[in-house]
Amino acid sequence: MANNSMVESRHPWKAWLYLAPALVLLLVFTVWPIINTVRMAFLENYSGLKSVGGQTFKFGFGNFVKVLQYKRFIQCMKNTVLICFLTVPISTMLALLISVALNSIKGLQKFLQTVFFLPYVTNSIAIGMVFAAMFNIVGSFYGTENELIVTAGIINNIIQFFGGKPVNWINYGSTYAANITVMVIYIVWNALPFKILILLGGLQSVNKQYYDAAKVDGTSRRRIFARITVPLLSPMIAYVVITGFIGGFKEYTSIVGIFGESMGPADDKGRLNTMVGFIYDSLSTNSQGRASAAALILFGIILIVTLIQLYVSKKRVHY
Amino acid sequence: MAERIEIMHEKNMQKETSKQLILGYVFKVLVYLFLILMGVIVLFPFYWMIISSLKTLTEYRLSVPTFFPTKIMFSNYADAFTTASLGRLFLNTLYVGIVSTILSLIITILSAFAFARLEFKGKNILFAGLLATMMIPGELFTITNYSTVTNLGWINTYTVLIVPFLVSVFYIYLLRQNFLQIPNELYLAAKVDGTSDFKYLCKVMIPLSLPTLISITILKMMGAWNSYIWPRLVANDAAHRMVTNGLRNAFKDTTGDVNYPVQMAAVALVSAPLFLVFIFLRKYIMKGVSRSGIKG
Predict the structure, then answer these.
(1) How many separate domains does chain B show?
(2) What pTM does this model have?
(3) Which positions in chain B touch A102 (Cβ < 8 Å)?
């Protein structure tokens, strides 16, 4: 090592030469934005357009107060939090079950593993459009009694096949609960591959001795799952939960995929907007101050959730 | 007496094991049923996309759905191709994807090499600082980057789609880890032989970390293919539009009475390259993905 640094210390500028392209780009597109976003967030009512016009803005917390008082922002935050707290536990549980099941079989394992990874390499807008088609009702469904439904959509067809009643999932007049259900199904479908990949990878590296010992002791399957598999997998579970929450708080394109840029059913546009959507809306109306404040709030939430989970997993994650 | 007890005991044991055996089989069948059911649910949207894309509009709108098109309409694909002008979108996206991947690889290799092999003051602090930026959501950068690229006059150019995302701290991190695994002795030997750093990087380190470089290439190309938010903001004109934006723009309506067969054909065409990548390069994607936690 000493030898190495001796060789190198003659040309320390060389390292900076190698780093130069990355550092220049990072300064412009990463470091400056961090500084500037904080600056704009604390300049009350900052607008890029007005700033060019020579207007000055006074320092204060006005943007944050305004954002938090804004009814649409609260709705966006509610949507985001709801989606997070529904999709992350559901997808983690499902992924855990699938991974444990996959790990326990021999035949078809490779094939099924490939099947479960397939949704990962998809375009969330494109496949969102497929989900929209599956839930969409063709024909009139405007809430009045005597309207005709041409096609209820494949999901409703399946529900009807099992004797259920068709639901207005995403069309004009659909309920908030129905919309969120569709979003949760789509996001869970989309989130499974990554989680299965990580959890199955974890399972395959678990020492088989634990299971052999449990077998000798005649431990029941449920007990093995709860007392051996889950504790041994806890670091991977913590990892997929944390990345799941971070991704969930940044949810945006899946909603555009299903509802289009109106972010909601035809009669209530923007109903399903998320925090990221709010930031882009503010940006497109040239309210950079408000957008920056919202972005910092989003960052704060992600940071707090991550820190809480790291703290919890430090206590709960075994080995 | 003792013998009899032993025989009885053995019989009990046999009963027990055969009962366990049956339970084990039942359990195995249940496991397979569960996995196959989940597999069908996972695959169903793809199946629905493909059969819908081949149906006539009348057949799609039947109140009792058909699970295989009675009349196969390949013309939907031609319609989709022209409606969304997919040709232009594919070329734009390929251009942006290829140029940004090449430039990004060069930058990533150079900086990963500096962090893995060269000694300079403040190396560890700088690297930690870079890693810390990974925690910040991208939206926070976008707000300022939007005004930066506007001021630079880059709106509606290819440059604006390529340059702001050339550096990925995650890729630098990934490659640096790979470079660190290459034994230092090789480097010192090369030094003794008078090989320059750059030559060593090209002749030894790049070939040895080819799998990681391939993973980065695929993820970067997929990123270009799936990007939506940034292109919509800065380059949504017909000449520079990317494929995802074009798809969303061409088919604005998702609900109501939409010509779904054509729309699904367009979706299938946009998804096709991703499936090809999946089939041939799955191994590399899985390797890159398992360490990232990011989508495309």
Answers:
(1) 2
(2) 0.89
(3) 35
